[in-house]
Amino acid sequence: MGHILTLERQTLSDTGAGHGGALARLDPRARILGACAFAMVTVVCSWMPVLVAALLMAVGLMWLSRVPVAPTLRRMAAMDSFIIFLLALLPFSVPGDTIFTLWGFAASWQGLALAVEILLTANAVVLALLSLVGTMEPVTLGHALSRLRVPDTLVHLLMFTIRYIDVLRAEYLRLRQAMKMRGFRPSTNWHSYRSFGYLVGMMLVRAIERSERVLGAMKCRGFAGRIPLLETLAYGRSDALFAAGLGAALLALFAAEIAHAAV
Amino acid sequence: MHIVDGALANEVVIGGAALAAGGIALGLRHLPLEKIPAAGVLSASFFVASLIHVPIGPSSVHLIMNGLAGLILGWAAFPALFVGLLLQAVFFGFGGLTVLGVNTVNIALPAVIVYYVCRRGVTRGSPLTAAIWAGFGGALAIALTTALVGLSLMLSGDAFIPAAKLVFFAHIPVMVIEGLLSAAAIYLAAQVKPDLFDAMKGAPS
């Protein structure tokens, strides 16, 4: 499954961050809570038309957020490829009315329906998440979570991780470059695995040494246990409007699901 | 290995979230402010390590290295790996939002178990002994992770049992590779920087 996203595309600064269109002006907290509400409602619902509507809503959010469409859909497809085996097995493992038989195994309509249900739910949630939250600057995500009463220690940990992912990735690429210069070509053998192991070990050693320097520098500047978060977040009228709109849409989805279940 | 939204039963999702919250809270108690830079940088390096693709035959697998994370971070592996999964879900679309708790438990709980089983063997003795214990820990972590993924699927319905079995058997080569790599990584670290394992020490519990 590894070949789907090459390393070149996987840095935090290369994600949808910085886009955001009409959604970018909204309060990050509203976007995070909106994504959570969307996910919960979509996961609870299971009637096919409701899930299709949820997916269309997510596509609408993607359009509103102005994220580049191709990479976003590619990310979604990458996620689908993770679960394709799981879904492909479902028609054969759920008992029900047979569609066709393959090597003596019967595929059922019920199983197919369940597979489609999972596929719709998963894609709708991921698309909404990438559009609403994935378009934030990673640091803004940390600030917003802090304002949402996530424990400070966890937020600090998140901020450090965000800060150092790109630094350590550059470190990794330097080490890989050095290995390549010395004629390393990865393949399936003991030498390759040992070299990759040494690479990971070296990265960890350098990471620890870097963290010692970072702590020293922070102490030198009078670090007293809190990173001040400078961003001021203001919940305004457009946020209330967004919350009301999204809330109404989600309520409608949920009501349709309940009405269908009652019949 | 990532489970997506919509696949699991609601009870499993809620149970996973509660367990993850407990684990993260415990992990944060092991993280005084002095240790935040080390934990953050290590969390970032495990994030980068998970982007490394190792060839296996005609295909390739990406590393997880949760055994190694457990050996070095202990309980702090819970918040550190959670942060990695959160960033992957939000910015790369891997996994999902409501299943974040389940995914965190599936990756971080094996890390903590490996910490308790193998930590003593890795910190005492020669680099070779450390490497053997680390190799065992690396393989054990993946075995436990796939077992937990299978368990979350099975608890959600009998229809997932074939898929759960497939996940487990498909990951046996990954267990071997993670074991070998963890052993090599610790063999190097034990020689180059033996105090690597003290990075998280001295943290009051």
UniProtKB/TrEMBL annotation, chain A:
Q: Which InterPro entries match?
A: ABC/ECF_trnsptr_transmembrane, ECF_CbiQ, ECF_transporter_component
Q: Which domain of life is it from?
A: Bacteria
- Give the UniProt keywords, A-Z: Cell membrane, Membrane, Transmembrane, Transmembrane helix
Spell out where the chain crosses the membrane. 32-62, 82-105, 112-133, 153-170, 240-259
How does the record classify its membrane topology? Multi-pass membrane protein
Q: Key word Signal present in the record?
A: no
Q: Name one GO biological process term.
A: cobalt ion transport
CC annotations in GO: ATP-binding cassette (ABC) transporter complex
Write out the annotated subcellular location: Cell membrane
Give the matching CDD domains: EcfT
Which family would the database say this protein is a member of? Belongs to the CbiQ family.
Q: Which PANTHER family match?
A: SLL0384 PROTEIN
Put simply, this protein is called: Cobalt/nickel transport system permease protein
To which species is this protein native?
A: Rhodovulum marinum
TrEMBL record, chain B:
Which processes are annotated in GO (biological process)? Answer: transition metal ion transport
**Membrane spanning residue stretches:** 12-30, 36-56, 68-91, 97-118, 130-154, 166-190
Q: Name one GO cellular component term.
A: plasma membrane
Do the record's keywords include Cell membrane? yes
Q: Where in the cell is it found?
A: Cell membrane
The topology of this chain with respect to the membrane is: Multi-pass membrane protein
Please provide the record's keywords in A-Z order: Cell membrane, Membrane, Transmembrane, Transmembrane helix, Transport
- Gene3D superfamilies for the chain: 1.10.1760.20
rRNA-binding among keywords: no
Task: Give the protein's recorded name.
Answer: Cobalt/nickel transport system permease protein
Native species: Rhodovulum marinum
Higher taxonomy = Bacteria, Pseudomonadati, Pseudomonadota, Alphaproteobacteria, Rhodobacterales
